[in-house]
Amino acid sequence: CTCPSGYALREDRRMCRDTRQGFCFTEVLQTMCQMSSTNRNLVTKSECCCNSGRSWGPQCELCPLPGTAHYKKMCPHGPGYSTDGRAPSWCFADNNECTAQPSLCGAKGQCLNTPGSYNCECQKGFSLDSSGVNC
Length: 135
Hints:
Blueprint: E1 7-9, E2 16-18, E3 24-25, E4 28-29, E5 32-33, H1 45-49, E6 55-56, E7 61-62, H2 69-74, H3 97-100, E8 109-114, E9 117-122
Antiparallel strand pairs: 1-2, 3-6, 4-5, 6-7, 8-9
């Protein structure tokens, strides 16, 4: 197998993995990445999207929503790990997104910190919207 530019052959030598580097964004408003929400470190798309990023790269590529088939393919080891099972190189300690961004999950939700990410739990009678972060 040969891989296109920006991709490298995985260890199993059967598939390519994305090695492109870009900024990770935690906020997207009407398909526009918010520069104020970037971590200012260049990371791969899976390092971003598997670690609570909402979009990645110079073209503001949206991350797949947690729980979807695309997310499970990109993040097979779960939140906090890139596609190949590594914690991101820039992640030396778990950041508590719930403390850092108190408005996560909306007024009717509770933010639950997890290693490298977070989950939203909604009050009874409410459910998560399509973004997966607001009740």
